[in-house]
Write a structure and sequence with these properties.
2 domains; binds 4'-deoxy-4'-aminopyridoxal-5'-phosphate; single chain; alpha+beta; D-amino Acid Aminotransferase, Chain A, domain 1; 9-stranded mixed beta sheet; about 325 residues; D-amino Acid Aminotransferase, Chain A, domain 2
Length: about 325
Amino acid sequence: MNSKYIWLNGEMLETSRATVPFLTVGLHYGVGVFEGIRAYDTARGPAVFRLRDHLVRMEGSAKILGFRDVPYSVDELVAATVETVRANGFGACYIRPLVYLAEGGWNLTIDTGKPHVGVAVWEQTVYAGRDLSKGVKATVTSFTRSHPNANMTKAKVCGNYANSVLAKTEAFRNGFDEAIMLDPEGYVAECTGANLLLVRGGRLISPPLDAILDGVTRNTLMQLAGEMGLEVEERRISRDSLYLADEAFVCGTAAEVLPIIEIDRRPVRDGRPGPVTLRLQAAYMDAVHGRHARSDEWLEYVGVVPRSVENSGDFVGRRVP
Ligand code: PMP
């Protein structure tokens, strides 16, 4: 991975020095929470898409998991993230903030360890080498999405992703590009690291938030769809209605808007990306690249002081008292 500097517990370190001791609970038991964020090239330089929203979600994930004393505020992490992107000198890149349990916690409780916090960035423009315009082939995986009472599905908890790895590995080994996960009641939930949206009868349809992550991309697309005059509906989706969808697509920070052209060897419509998907994809790309009327509201330009920390000096390295 092309990464030069990582911000770790308040220090900007060369990536090779940003290491974690083998005996760290976060590594052994997946006790941590994280975010996946992207910066894009815009006419005004690199800009991070919905940075604050992602970091607010990470704060919520930490709370859900039980962390009580994350030593940095959202404002400080906004500043640290912008600083890390700047330090690496990247334009478009992927950003990975992570809070993990260290210095204890071996008895499987949060309070006997300490949260450590890092922000890494690396250059990444294309999702898994996929051509967004061509679309992917998906399958319904045999692995069930965790019940919200088992693993907290509103939180991006590191350990939750073992469930995603099981599903995606199965899908890949069976020759598919993406796995669609059903919830414990058998209704469509989401993909392994992205949400799933359908189009039927000209309406944008999403599973309800019950057992899925409240995706920033899903939320963005629902707003963009509304502004385009599309009706947006949240309802339970059964497996068979997946096969009857006019259009289907994966959406997430990494995946962006990725058309699904086949589900379980059945073509979605004519097996080509659908018109609504392509319109939403174009609007999303305009939004993230600073070309949409909503862009300024959603983008944190790396070349300027983050809105939230104007007049607050340099937060990097300063701990919350
Ligand atoms: N669901 C899961 C399980 C994810 O990991 C992600 C990626 N964060 C998403 C959905 C999409 O969320 P977002 O659009 O905020 O990236």
